[in-house]
Write a structure and sequence with these properties.
With about 475 residues, the protein is mainly beta. The protein has seven helices and 39 strands.
Length: about 475
């Protein structure tokens, strides 16, 4: 890592970097790592073996701002959330623009046995590509805790693409925190992302475990063609997420929760920013209303039983977390038609007086949800308003992840049970716009996405089965080679 900021266009290739006493890397403070651009542009980090960092392996993150650095540690008088808002806005003053920062590539690296993150970043990782990496055994000693631990932990992952990585045996897999706007998480294999077997007592402040955590963002955040095989697949304390063609063995949790703070009996909402499309300039701040989520052509399998109250949980979780797999956590959320009818009829006429007090409950209520073309097995449950789906309550899906030397594959009867259930091809037009930023689910260049390629990049044709594979035959191929 350069001591100075603004050292651009550096390639780090083929190094073995290990055993460094990096410091804790919180988002409102200086974030160091064993390798990192330190607030610059156009770095390539490739074909490296990166391991045994005391904290972060690679940092794409925060510069040192003397007026904001470790403010909470020394002053205490502002909440950490307010420091975050300060950091976002001060970043503009310190050159946080598309022309100056980010656009990095991290590819084909083996990142492992780090105790905070494999990759960490706050603002400095915008417009970056993270692909074909093997990230594993992160935070397994559990000597460090706090809200910054994951295989990949990114704040402000604006137009960041995370694809074709294998992330496993981490406290959590991928965590996109704040401003996951234009973020695409695609074609990844995530498994065994929870505390290692034999971890008896977790330290104070330890985080919950899941494959992907999207927190207090407004979207559009796109999660497509992934295998999410841990006990909790998604933690959605957020809004504006589209899930397309994924296979999930674990639950979707934190629906409608974990975005605000209850302080002395009063709700203190977290206002978080959204941005000008494909830029870093702040367009506005808003609380999380929840919803504005889409689920198309996914497969949900209840791979672990739902524990009864009082019994030991299978997931490193909070008390209100669910182990129930499926989209049923959105049962109380409106369809688009139900939501829109609070404001106007579909002929354009007003349904209520044009006064803000008349519409207050609608303006602060849950946003709508869309779901279609999903499949549910082994007791996985569908959103009660979803009509175009397949719920199989009679057959038992067997699913095993097979590791043979340096190869990873799956063994399952799932594709014997799908039969001739086919759905149409999903596109950017299908998904619409994320509500708050009014931005489409599109490429960083603003182009449409057609979801006609699967986990391997195989073409799907004019219609497709749900899930991350174009066919059952494709599903039998090697998923990852170390």
């Amino acid at each position: 890592m350069p001591q100075e900021t603004g050292i651009n266009n550096i390639t780090v290739s083929g190094f073995n970097v290990n055993k460094a006493a990096t410091t804790w890397a919180p988002p409102a403070s200086y974030q160091d790592g064993m390798i990192g651009p330190h607030w610059a542009k156009n770095w390539i980090i490739e074909d490296c073996d990166i391991s045994h960092s005391r904290c972060a392996g690679i940092s794409l993150g925060k510069y040192r701002d003397p007026e904001n650095d470790q403010y909470f540690t020394y002053e205490h008088v502002k909440s950490p959330t307010q420091m975050e808002r300060d950091a976002v806005c001060r970043g503009q003053y310190h050159g946080w623009l598309k022309e100056n920062i980010g656009h990095h590539i991290i590819r084909r690296c083996n990142i492992h046995h780090c105790e905070q993150d494999g990759i960490v970043g706050r603002q400095g990782g915008v417009f970056s590509l993270i692909e074909d990496n093997h990230i594993h055994d992160i935070n397994n000693m559990q000597e460090l805790a706090g809200a910054e631990i994951a295989g990949i932990k990114m704040h402000a992952a604006i137009d960041v693409i995370i694809r074709r990585n294998h992330i496993h045996d981490c406290t959590m897999g991928i965590w996109t925190d704040w401003e996951a706007q234009g973020t695409r998480i695609s074609q990844n294999l995530l498994d065994h992302n929870y505390a290692p077997k034999g971890t008896a007592v977790r330290i104070v402040g330890a985080m919950q475990s899941q494959d992907i955590f999207v927190e207090v963002g407004h979207g559009p955040t796109l999660i497509d063609n992934n295998l999410l095989l841990s006990k909790a697949s998604l933690r959605l304390a957020t809004e504006g997420v589209a899930c397309v063609h994924n296979l999930m063995l674990g639950s979707i949790t934190s629906i409608g929760a974990n975005t605000d703070f209850l302080v002395d009996g009063k709700n203190q909402p977290r206002f978080t920013p959204y941005h000008i499309h494909h830029r870093t300039e702040v367009a506005g701040f808003m609380t999380i209303l929840h919803g504005d989520d889409r689920f198309y052509n996914n497969i949900f399998v209840q791979n672990w039983p739902v524990e009864k109250p009082g019994e030991e949980t299978l997931v490193d979780r909070e008390a209100e977390d669910t182990e129930q797999v499926g989209t049923n956590g959105f049962d109380d959320y409106p369809t688009y038609d139900e939501w829109y009818s609070q404001f106007k009829k579909f002929d354009g006429t007003i349904t209520k007086e044009n006064d803000m007090w008349d519409l207050m409950s609608a303006h602060f209520g849950h946003l709508p949800v869309w779901a279609a073309g999903n499949m549910y097995f082994n007791g996985a449950k569908a959103w009660k308003k979803e009509t175009d789906n397949l719920v199989n309550t009679s057959d038992k899906v067997i699913f095993d992840l097979v590791e043979n030397d340096n190869e990873v594959s799956i063994k399952t009867n799932l594709y014997d049970l799908i039969g001739d259930y086919f759905e149409g091809i999903i596109t950017t037009k299908t998904l619409g716009e994320a509500f708050e930023p009014e931005q489409r689910y599109e490429t960083p260049e603003g182009d449409d996405i057609i979801f006609n390629e699967d986990y391997f990049g195989n073409h799907r044709g004019v219609s497709t089965i749900p899930g991350p594979f174009a066919s059952g035959k494709t599903a039998s191929k090697i998923l990852w080679q170390k």
